[in-house]
């Protein structure tokens, strides 16, 4: 067995991992105890990485060869790399010749490595002379970038993870860190346990698992953050809690901000934000008077039409109270993706250049042109993400090159995005996974390597650069992203005089050029080399004269602005782009699930990661359900100005009144439907708005105005079955064609609940298909569904009533001298779902039921009791087992939780379920 140190490819915490491999097979993964980001911890997603790289997964979902479609709608055909890249180069050359360089655009990803990013940036801005290159980091971090630059002068988080251990007050706002950055949240939990006197404030419209740790929870109304921050500053000024000495010595612009917040009285703020007046005073006092206050924030601030203003207004509070530049104090933006920071470092956004240079600055453009050896860098700003796809939809951009991201799932206003992909003359998709929705629109598919196969660097949320290393070779003909871009660029160069702009043969050669571009800049890393990074990840800046990176910035009170002073931002409050109104009375919020990542191209390959949240749903407050006369599980139309989705509804006490929540992950791969006119609708982003912040150009993915009405779809369908592990994902791809036939359909994998260490050997896998329609579909649709789930290849009990549109099939298999349900289909009447699904999922003996397996309506005698939802993914522990244990144990909640963990092991591996376990320990009383 070989062990390789690398970095996790999921969130911006940047956890170190140790990959175990045998030959070309990754066999295991564990946290790297020497990595300063995680010290050996991993979350549910990170601890299952090796399962996503198993050969049986790779064979079913990976793009293994270059593929080309001769025409739209046709099946792609395998081609050679030379043929693929020659075609791409000739097509780009022709489009640029006929329409100019701005007729092409590159849309890349925060999951690329820094070296990949650097080559793409140089390719677009240096060789093709277009600034039309943007990244999905525009969707998550651009408001944080703009906020830092507006106030502190540079895109540089001034804090580090160690500050969690020194903070006396932690203000978590717009972040469900328990789900989005779970390893960092474990550190917050531990810091609170060591120092219970430290205060934690959580501000979020939803009472998430993160809020369970709060000493003060602020259930803010969506989009009112700027008003809250201005109101807190108003109180700080009134009570004398600001630091006039620091303001005078190190900042500018405070008088304008002071005049602005004068009108933000506690009464106005409480009414606007939906908060209690006394809670505002408590929050202001803790923030301002604590010896050290640390803010942790993420998409709740960033993904907004006021994203830059929200970030800047929060940083105002730190500057006004001198809570910056020392241990435990500062505004800390938590990066969403593993290398969003690295992409910003090399200028991978439409408005940036390498090493934090600004495209709008002529001197910066001249510096980079000279550094690259090109005549000039174009001065016109490039199209940002939303603008780029709108331009393609309008016919202005003719060619799109999309790398390592899935805009047909992740971008807002999917109708426009899909029109762009259909109208573009050429769509190139460079991707590791063939199953993403965007691949369906590609004229050219280029197979890329992915985690466990790549070499390079990434930068995490605390400015720490880590090595990414390959444990195995990439499968099939997959190539590294940087190598694909270099090969393409060299073909475009043609007979260009002089040396190539792309002489790179290794990722280290690219990194060395990037390193040199940082000399003298705020992120100077000229003191680093690959050998040093092999030994230990390092934070920037790390100039040539340094012996280590800098943990914190601005400790001397000097900021990277012309006068060395930080700048207060007098930004006004604006409501969301789509405030609730009579026609659309609900505020739709989006966010993350605990065990899933982005569009689920990787995590969605594992049934066990669907254990915690098995199917898509829209969550609403119980009182709203009662008011609308909706019951748990009813199908509803969730409708915005852009479209309508059908989803089952769930009651949730986390949600505020007149609010609704849908997880961001549910895209076309897992959730589809048809509009009233027959147009396909797919995923939550069919209804989100593309309105964006005017400064950062980041769209308001967190908020849209919707109406919610019961869906009258009388014909329902449920089908599920166990399948060979090597067939599950390929079968899911085949089922996508059937999903497109229904106004509502979802198809998700599921698995048994074997502990993680046994998963590879003992865990069974299957698929669940659920749909609803106005009437029964043709018989051949159900026959195809039965065939795909294997019902036609096993002993099957059947019932059909054509007049009622009902059909049932229960497939059984003899095992251990009894029968087990292996697959089932309920069509037209799914009322027996509960007990039949329980028999299948728990693999219980079914022989005694006989023909009762086809019974309708009420449960039969001795119906099996369904287990609750899975809480602990690592050990497969369900909610009912946890509740029984807690009810049978005595003592305070802390002691019962410790007993629970000792006996059932839940919460003792990755810890992602610990907040939920704590909540259950408080709510479940001893019998």
Automatic annotation (TrEMBL):
Q: Which Pfam families match?
A: Molybdop_Fe4S4, Molybdopterin, Molydop_binding
Name the keywords, alphabetized: 4Fe-4S, Iron, Iron-sulfur, Metal-binding, Molybdenum, Nitrate assimilation, Oxidoreductase
Q: Might you name a Gene Ontology BP term for this protein?
A: nitrate assimilation
What SMART domains does this protein map onto?
A: Molybdop_Fe4S4
Q: What do the Gene Ontology cellular component annotations say?
A: membrane; oxidoreductase complex
Cofactor(s) recorded for this entry are: Mo-bis(molybdopterin guanine dinucleotide); [4Fe-4S] cluster
A GO MF label:
4 iron, 4 sulfur cluster binding
4Fe-4S Mo/W bis-MGD-type domain: residues covered:
1-57
Specify the superkingdom. Answer: Bacteria
Q: Which InterPro entries does the annotation name?
A: Asp_de-COase-like_dom_sf, BFD-like_2Fe2S-bd_dom_sf, CT_Nitrate-R-NapA-like, MoPterin_dinucl-bd_dom, Mopterin_OxRdtase, Mopterin_OxRdtase_4Fe-4S_dom, Mopterin_OxRdtase_prok_CS, MopterinOxRdtase_cofactor_BS
Classification via CDD domains: MopB_CT_Nitrate-R-NapA-like (cd02791), MopB_Nitrate-R-NapA-like (cd02754)
Q: Which family does it belong to?
A: Belongs to the prokaryotic molybdopterin-containing oxidoreductase family. NasA/NapA/NarB subfamily.
Its name, as the record gives it, is Molybdopterin-dependent oxidoreductase
């Amino acid at each position: 067995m070989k062990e390789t140190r690398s970095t996790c490819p999921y969130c911006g915490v940047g956890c170190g991992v140790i990959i175990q491999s045998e030959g070309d097979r990754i066999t295991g993964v564990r946290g790297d105890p020497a990595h300063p980001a995680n010290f050996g911890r991993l979350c549910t997603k990170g601890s299952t990485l090796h399962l996503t790289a198993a050969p049986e997964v790779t064979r079913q979902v990976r793009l293994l060869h270059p593929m080309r479609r001769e025409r739209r709608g046709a099946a792609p055909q395998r081609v050679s790399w030379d043929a693929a890249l020659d075609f791409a180069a000739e097509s780009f050359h022709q489009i640029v010749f006929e329409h100019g360089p701005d007729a092409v655009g590159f849309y890349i990803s925060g999951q690329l490595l820094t070296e990949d990013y650097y080559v793409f940036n140089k390719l677009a801005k240096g060789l093709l002379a277009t600034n039309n290159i943007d990244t999905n980091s525009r969707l998550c971090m651009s408001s944080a970038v703009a906020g830092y630059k507006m106030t502190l002068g540079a895109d540089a988080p001034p804090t580090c993870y160690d500050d969690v251990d020194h903070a006396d007050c932690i203000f978590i706002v717009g972040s469900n860190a328990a789900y989005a950055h779970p390893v960092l949240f474990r550190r917050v939990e531990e810091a609170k346990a060591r120092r219970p006197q430290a205060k934690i404030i959580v501000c979020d419209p939803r009472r998430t698992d993160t809020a369970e740790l709060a000493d003060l929870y602020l259930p803010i109304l969506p989009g009112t953050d700027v008003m809250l921050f201005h109101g807190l500053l108003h109180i700080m000024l009134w009570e004398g809690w600001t630091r006039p000495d620091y303001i005078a010595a190190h900042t500018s612009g405070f008088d304008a901000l002071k005049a602005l917040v004068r009108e933000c009285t506690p009464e106005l703020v409480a009414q606007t934000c939906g908060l209690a007046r006394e809670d505002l005073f408590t929050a202001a006092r803790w923030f301002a008077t604590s010896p050290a206050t640390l803010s942790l924030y993420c998409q709740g601030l960033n993904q907004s039409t006021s994203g830059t203003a929200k970030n800047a207004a929060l940083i105002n509070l730190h500057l006004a109270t001198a809570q910056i530049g020392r241990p435990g104090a500062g505004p800390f933006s938590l990066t969403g993706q593993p290398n969003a920071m690295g992409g910003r470092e090399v200028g991978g956004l439409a408005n940036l250049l390498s090493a934090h240079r600004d495209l709008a600055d002529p001197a910066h453009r001249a510096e980079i042109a000279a550094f690259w050896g090109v005549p000039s860098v174009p001065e016109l700003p490039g199209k940002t993400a939303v603008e780029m796809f709108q331009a393609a939809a309008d016919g202005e951009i003719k060619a799109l090159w999309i790398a390592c991201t899935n805009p047909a799932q992740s971008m807002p206003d999917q109708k426009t995005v899909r029109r762009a992909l259909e109208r573009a003359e050429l769509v190139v998709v460079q991707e590791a996974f063939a199953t993403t929705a965007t691949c369906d629109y590609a004229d050219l598919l280029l197979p890329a390597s992915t985690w466990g196969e790549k070499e390079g660097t990434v930068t995490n949320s605390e400015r720490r650069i880590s090595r990414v290393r390959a444990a195995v070779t990439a499968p099939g003909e997959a190539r590294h992203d940087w190598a694909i871009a270099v090969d393409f660029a060299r073909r475009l160069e043609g007979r260009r005089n002089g040396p190539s702009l792309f002489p790179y043969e290794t990722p280290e050669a690219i990194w060395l050029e990037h390193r040199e571009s940082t000399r003298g800049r705020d992120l100077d890393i000229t003191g680093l080399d690959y050998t040093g990074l092999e030994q230990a990840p390092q934070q920037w800046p790390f100039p040539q004269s340094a012996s280590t990176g800098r943990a914190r910035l601005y400790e001397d009170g000097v900021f990277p602005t012309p006068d060395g002073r930080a700048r207060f931002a007098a930004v006004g409050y604006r409501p969301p782009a789509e405030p609730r109104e009579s026609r659309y009375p609900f505020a739709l919020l989006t966010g993350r699930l605990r065990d899933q990542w982005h569009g689920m191209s990787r995590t969605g390959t594992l049934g066990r990661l669907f254990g915690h949240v098995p199917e898509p749903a829209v969550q609403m407050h119980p009182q709203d359900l009662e008011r609308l006369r909706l019951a748990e599980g009813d199908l509803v139309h969730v409708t915005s100005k852009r479209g309508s989705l059908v989803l089952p509804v769930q009651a949730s006490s986390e949600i505020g009144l007149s609010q609704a929540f849908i997880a961001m992950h549910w895209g076309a791969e897992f959730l589809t439907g048809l509009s009233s006119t027959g147009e396909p609708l797919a995923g939550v982003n069919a209804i989100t708005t593309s309105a964006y912040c005017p400064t950062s150009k980041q769209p308001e993915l967190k908020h849209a105005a919707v109406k919610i009405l019961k869906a009258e779809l009388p014909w329902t369908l449920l089908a599920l079955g166990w399948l060979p592990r090597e067939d599950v994902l390929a079968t899911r791809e085949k089922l996508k064609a059937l999903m497109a036939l229904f106004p509502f359909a979802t198809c998700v994998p599921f698995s048994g609940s074997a502990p993680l260490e046994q998963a590879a050997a003992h865990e069974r896998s299957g698929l669940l298909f659920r749909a609803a329609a106005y009437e029964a579909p043709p018989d051949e649709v159900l026959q195809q569904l039965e065939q795909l789930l294997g019902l036609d290849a096993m002993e099957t009990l059947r019932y059909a009533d054509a007049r009622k549109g009902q059909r049932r099939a229960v497939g059984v298999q003899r095992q251990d001298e009894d029968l087990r349900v292996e697959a089932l289909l309920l069509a037209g009447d799914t009322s027996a779902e509960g007990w039949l699904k329980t028999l299948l999922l728990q693999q219980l003996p079914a022989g005694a039921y006989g023909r009762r397996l086809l019974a309708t309506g009420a449960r039969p005698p001795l119906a099996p009791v369904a287990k609750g939802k899975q809480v602990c993914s690592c050990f497969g522990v369900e909610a009912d087992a946890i509740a029984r244990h807690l009810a049978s144990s005595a003592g305070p909640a802390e002691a019962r939780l410790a007993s629970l963990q000792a006996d059932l092991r839940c919460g003792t591996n990755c810890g992602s379920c610990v907040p939920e376990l704590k909540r259950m320990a408080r709510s479940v009383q001893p019998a």
